[in-house]
Write a structure and sequence with these properties.
heterotrimer; A alpha/beta; B mainly alpha; C alpha/beta; B: mainly alpha; 76% helix; C: Rossmann fold; elongated
């Protein structure tokens, strides 16, 4: 083989690259002054990024607040964000990067179910303490994933709240269940239908509508003709929500919509043709983020809103996104503080021992056999169009 | 129910037909099928929403600005993605360059505009129920467009020059027709037509970046059905597609309707690659 | 065979080429070495990235044959990845049948991929470029929708766990080694095809379809073979992808991923193995270099694609190809070597003549050929002349099988020549050149010439894939024969040069060399002297006559009257589709009607 300048250059640069990579990175410094690194797997851009943006505000706020108060025993919080765009492939890459390259101490996220399903096993293998806000039931398995904790209700808890509202407050005996054609929409609808049928209610119409379908009149007509008394809705697509609500108004039908919290997002407000189209829509909400008849939030949440004002915009997001992210960061910080260590086992053990931990978003209880920490009684239904600073009024009947 | 399916089928079919015409207009003077056709449609909706809602302009100036912006993008496409590869014998290059430009447009819109669908304003505010403006406006715009184009191609000098370039490039150039300027003009025209598609269909499709690839695909089917370069075929194909799609949505539901559309598309293409009204291939040897 | 000793430089190149399908070999080994060295870093993140590159490359290696070699723009190839991922996962999980061991599931996925690779690729046989690209996009959507809807089997939106490989492959490093090994194997397999007559045939179909047909290349069969291989590889890549991700959902198979594969081939450069490999490495690495890049990754891919296509259409491969750099000598002379021609053709007896009787062919309302009789006798040069539009090239096209005559018959001796079957002509030892040279610009002159002998290959696709002895033997023979042909026409020194760097006259002689690969019984030449200098025409004439004296029947369509009268034994004159006169050159030269219609005073 002829040795030419080009060969040398190519060979040399690749050797250099190899050498650079083999130098171990971030030699463990004196543990005491090391910042507490929290990995944040966020879907900040790409489809369905509104929750990610909301969570992000909470994350940054909480980190800044803790650091401003001197950190955790003198150690500052460092948030390392990776925008996964809702893509499981990017999520896997980013997770492994956080584990092996960036050596974070705990991970908050991902925010998207598809990503979460892909990274759960990887985090479990690395025993990485993980809190996430994803609702898919199978994500939490205390035996296989002892490192994973859920901060939000599970999909079953959501589904239970919606179903119970339909059956007991709306008193509907016939329901239509509608979702979109994404992975989440299809599985949520199926689970919901099965649960309604177990409760002996009649599901008169079931549909998965493509989020880009421009006209939903036939679907709504069929639901009405089948005698639906409530429409249960599972999708994050604000376009689809708006189209359904507008069509409902054009049909002069006043059936209530009950379901996914996305129905209360500000985007829907801008997409409905008339504000009145947004009436009688009940979206999942949380007692902590709901204001009572006099317009007051629960005291703890009110205090948070007070601290947020001027720093975090709540007008175009949901309070529970911000609040839950603040709680997540604080749960990690508190774990380090209480155990005086950033070791993975220590953090997990601390979380396993939490009983009625008073967060802003919820009151969490975890144990080695229960990693779904959000109490079901704190899940409520909200009136979707009643947003004020990202919080909602309780739906009628609460 | 049926009335609703027909109304929405014709409306969305009109949008697809207009995108098909966009494809044809770009093809006419360059023999290039451009991936940017659907993106122009998407931009029609996005710009319309940007000018009319976010910037608060009255509807007519918003429309004019939208057409102008998309025409400009059409011209940029011609300069960046089409002209450099026309000289090359390699037929495939234009697929790549126009694909690249389409992706750049789509991604920039997603990052800068929004990844959620944004509202589109009412244009004339006439009608309600199945006679609502969002149903009849695209159909009316489509018909007006095709009539105008027919007039352009048949009775005006510029239009006939377009046709000449399309029919026989060398002869047209030998006659002294300014081929390059005509091509730029036709790409600008195509941009405007795409913008019209998006603007007229904005209330149905909303201002959403993901409309780009959607319109690319569904706007291509009328071209495949009607024959490449055949605007009338594109209109008929577009309406048929729209009706078929809405009927499929209704009958088999959202997940399978795209399967149904695509299966039909494949079958028709394999049975008649030149479309229902298209012309046969030219001499190769 | 002594002719070889005059050509020293090609000799050493030949030795280097025969070293293997991957030349030069060191870049591949270097990349492999870097990959294998990953465990030394102890960093599982880099291990993951390198494993991902290897898995993507398994798919891209196959896709390279479709997009880079065959030129079919399959943009939606993620469909095959999805099929492979789900097939492997479903079989390993036991949702339909009892659970299969992971490797068995992977194998079955490969079979499924082979089948669906053909299904996805089939439209390419009927549709033009853009249409086919659209259908692949549609397929990608359909497959995703089906995985979403078929909840019982695929888990629907919730998805399904990826297969677990047995120990020790279930660790990061174990899996890395496995994927690197598999990727190396796929590199070798696809390179074997690329460097074989199948690879050359693919490129011929891509760039010079008409000439490919004339050389006997059967496009549908060839493409189907490649679709099978690429589909199988893509599906197995899908199974490995599912293992890497540990859990798959329909939304993991994005259009962005499809673009990554497609763009990797194109920025790598067509007709190369190393180029797309580097392209895959770069595109996988790019979003990881800087965190903000991850969000803009698709934008970057698209920008990169645009830049490459506009600035360096040859891609990375063109940058690193040493062949482009060497300067060609300025004043090159084409000197045919009669001894080489003797060695190549030898003395043969072509038993029967090629006859045409009463051929009629119309285009629309115009009769291009109106009752033409013609006989090409072996061992003779038969000239076909006439004014423009008289039907000369059309007659050649009818003989070659591109046009089907409405009436009349063609035969070689007693055996009728089937109409409208251009791919069959090479098998019947009928070769031709074209009015405008049909060449593969990006391939070397030698490879262009070797295409002519494709039908003589006996080794099958599988043999080429595994580089079995018969295949390698045939390759050596083809190469030797091609060098001999190039020497015979006088282009021996330009064998390794890219064909698009040749002058026009050299291309004409190259086309003749291509026909000589077949050792043709009949040679049809379509205006070979157009654009040649006087001296070159003289040498061309000598070459043509020499070829005919070796037993070949030559039909020469020409405008250069001097050449015709110099070397032809028989001449037929066409006018307005009819035979105006036929006879020896001496007779034709004084024929009154011929003189007035065509030759002039």
């Amino acid at each position: 083989m002829k040795i030419t300048r080009r060969t040398l250059a190519l060979g040399g640069s690749s050797l250099a690259a190899g050498a650079a990579l083999s130098v171990p990175l971030a030699t463990p410094a004196l543990a005491q002054n090391e910042p507490i690194r929290i990995g944040w797997l966020a879907a900040l851009t790409g489809p369905s990024s509104a929750p990610g943006v909301g969570f992000n505000r909470g994350v940054l706020f909480a980190a800044e607040a803790i650091n401003a108060a001197g950190g955790v025993k003198g150690r500052r919080i460092e948030i390392i964000t990776r925008d996964t765009q809702g893509d499981p492939t990017k999520a896997v890459n980013a997770t492994q990067e956080m584990i092996s390259q960036l050596r974070v101490h705990a991970i908050w996220g991902p925010t998207n179910s598809g990503e979460s399903l892909a990274v759960t096993a990887i985090m479990a293998r690395a025993k990485m303490p993980n809190i996430h806000p994803c609702v898919v039931d199978s994500l939490i398995d205390e035996r296989r994933y002892p490192n994973a904790f859920r901060i939000t209700p599970s999909n079953t808890q959501w589904d239970d709240a919606v179903r119970s509202y339909c059956l007991t407050r709306v008193k509907a005996k016939k329901v239509a269940v509608i979702g979109d054609t994404t992975g989440y929409g299809v599985s949520a609808v199926n689970a919901s239908v099965a649960a309604f049928q177990r409760d002996k209610a009649e599901v008169v119409y079931k549909a998965n509508i493509d989020a880009t379908q421009p006209d939903v009149t036939p679907d709504m007509l069929r639901a009405r003709n089948a005698g639906a008394e409530a429409i249960v809705f599972w999708s994050v697509s604000t376009g689809l929500i708006a189209r359904l609500l507008n069509t409902r108004a054009n049909m002069n039908w006043d059936v209530p919509f009950v379901g996914h919290p996305a129905m209360s997002s500000g985007e829907v407000g801008s997409l409905v043709e008339r504000p009145s189209n947004w009436e009688k829509v009940y979206a999942i909400g949380y007692r902590s983020c709901s204001y009572d008849a006099s317009g007051n939030l629960p005291p703890r949440t009110a205090e948070l809103v007070q601290r947020l004002s001027g720093k975090v915009n709540l007008q175009d997001t949901l309070l529970w996104w911000v609040a839950s992210a603040v709680d997540a960061v604080q749960l990690i910080a508190k774990a380090v503080e209480a155990t005086n260590s950033t070791a993975k086992e220590a953090i997990i053990e601390y979380w396993n021992g939490l009983k009625n931990y008073p967060g802003y978003y919820g009151t969490y209880t975890y144990s080695p056999t229960q990693h779904n920490g959000y109490p079901t009684e704190e899940v409520v239904m909200s009136a979707a169009n009643s947003a004020k600073n990202g919080a909602f009024a309780l739906a009628p009947g609460y | 129910m049926l009335a609703s399916i027909i109304a929405s089928g014709l409306a969305v079919g009109a949008v697809y037909a207009l995108i098909g015409i966009t494809y044809n207009t770009m093809f006419a003077t360059s023999r290039v099928m451009s991936f940017t056709a659907g993106q122009l449609g998407m931009l029609g909706g996005v710009f319309g929403s940007l000018f009319a809602l976010r910037l608060g302009l009255p509807i007519l100036p918003a429309l004019v600005l939208t057409l102008a912006c998309c025409a400009l993008i059409g011209v940029v496409t011609e300069i960046v993605a089409v002209r450099p590869v026309l000289k090359s014998l390699d037929q495939h290059l234009y697929v790549l360059t126009t694909l690249a430009v389409a992706l750049l447009i789509q991604h920039t819109t997603a990052m800068e505009w929004s990844t959620e669908p944004q509202p589109f304003p009412r244009v004339l505010d006439l009608g309600s129920g199945i006679w609502d403006e969002k149903y009849w406006l695209p159909v009316v715009v489509c018909i007006l467009t095709i009539l105008s184009l027919e007039y352009l191609y048949r009775y005006t000098l510029v239009g006939r020059a377009f046709v000449a370039i399309a029919e026989d490039n060398f002869a047209a150039r030998a006659l002294g027709l300014p081929e390059r300027n005509l091509r730029i003009a036709s790409y600008a025209l195509a941009g405007a037509i795409g913008a019209l598609a998006g603007f007229a269909g904005g209330q149905l499709l909303l201002a959403f970046f993901a409309n780009g690839p959607l319109l690319n695909f569904y706007g291509f089917i009328p071209v495949a059905l009607g024959g490449l370069g055949n605007n009338r075929g594109a209109v008929i194909g577009g309406f048929l597609l729209g009706l078929y799609q809405q009927a499929a949505n209704f009958l088999v539901g959202g997940i399978f309707s795209s399967v149904a559309v695509f299966t039909l598309f494949i079958i028709v293409l394999l049975a008649a690659p030149q479309g229902m009204f298209g012309a046969q291939a030219v001499r190769r040897v | 065979m002594d002719a070889m000793t005059e050509t020293a430089p090609p000799r050493t190149e030949a030795a280097a080429r025969l070293a293997g399908p991957l030349t030069p070999l060191w870049p591949f080994l270097l990349l492999l070495a870097i990959g294998l060295a990953m465990p030394l870093t102890g960093n599982e993140y880099w291990g993951l990235i390198v494993t991902r590159m290897a898995i993507y490359w398994v798919l891209v290696a196959g896709l390279n044959l479709i997009v880079g070699y065959a030129g079919q723009l399959a943009i939606g190839y993620v469909a095959l990845l999805t099929i492979g991922a789900y097939t492997t996962s479903v079989l390993a999980a036991g949702n339909v049948l009892p659970p299969l061991p992971a490797f068995a599931a992977l194998g079955v996925a490969g079979l499924a991929g082979a089948v669906f690779g053909v299904v996805v690729g089939l439209p390419a046989l009927r549709l033009r470029t853009f249409y086919f690209a659209m259908t692949t996009l549609g397929f990608a959507t359909i497959v995703t929708q089906i995985t979403l809807a078929w909840q019982d089997v695929t888990g629907g939106g919730i998805g399904i766990a990826g297969p677990m490989l047995p120990e020790p492959l279930d660790t990061t490093w174990g899996f890395l080694y496995f994927c690197l090994g598999f990727a190396a194997l796929c590199t070798w397999l696809t390179a074997n095809i690329a460097r074989s007559r199948f690879g050359r045939a693919l490129v011929a179909v891509r760039d010079a379809e008409v000439a490919a047909e004339a050389s006997g290349i059967h496009k549908p069969k060839l493409l189907v073979l490649v679709f099978i291989l690429a589909g199988a590889l893509a599906a197995m890549a899908g199974g490995l992808f599912a293992t890497l991700q540990t859990y798959i959902t329909p939304d993991a198979f994005t259009f962005d991923l499809s673009l990554l594969f497609f763009i990797a081939v194109l920025i790598g450069g067509r007709g190369s193995i190393l180029g797309p490999l580097l392209g895959t490495v770069i595109l996988t690495l790019l979003p990881e270099i800087a965190a903000p890049l991850a969000a803009w990754s698709t934008f970057l891919y698209a920008a990169l694609l645009l830049v490459i296509v506009l600035a360096m259409p040859g891609g990375i491969a063109a940058l690193i190809d040493p062949r482009n750099r060497r300067k060609l000598p300025e004043h090159r002379v084409i000197t045919p070597q009669p001894t080489a021609l003797d060695a190549l053709l030898g003395r043969r007896e072509v038993p029967a003549s090629l006859t045409l009787r009463g051929i009629v062919l119309s285009f629309g309302g115009v009769r291009a050929i109106d009752g033409v009789d013609l006989e090409v006798t072996p061992g003779q040069v038969h000239g076909l002349i006439g004014p423009n539009g008289s039907g000369k090239t059309t007659t050649l096209n009818v003989i070659s099988g591109y046009y089907r005559p409405e009436a009349g018959s063609m035969a070689i001796g007693p055996a009728p020549l089937p109409a409208g079957e251009p791919q069959g002509r090479a098998g019947l030892r009928i070769a031709r050149t074209f009015q405008t040279p049909r060449l593969i610009g990006e391939a070397s002159v030698l490879e262009n010439v070797m295409i002519g002998g494709t039908t003589d290959g006996r080794a099958g696709f599988a043999e080429a894939l595994l580089a079995l002895p018969r295949q390698r033997q045939e390759e050596r023979e083809f190469e030797a024969r091609a060098r001999l042909a190039l020497e015979a026409v006088g282009l021996a020194g330009l064998a390794e040069v890219r064909a698009d760097r040749l002058q026009h006259s050299e291309l004409r002689f190259m086309e003749i060399a291509r026909t000589l690969m077949l050792r043709p019984a009949f040679l049809l030449l379509d205006e070979p002297a157009a654009g040649l200098s006087t001296e070159e025409i003289r040498r061309l004439g000598a070459l043509i006559r020499s070829i005919s004296r070796h037993g070949t029947g030559v039909l020469l369509v020409e405008h250069h009257a001097d050449l015709i009268f110099d070397i032809c034994d028989q001449v037929t004159v066409l006018n307005l589709g009819k035979v105006l006169a036929a006879g020896t050159p001496a007779e034709i030269r004084v024929h009154k009607e011929v003189v007035s219609a065509y030759l002039g005073a």
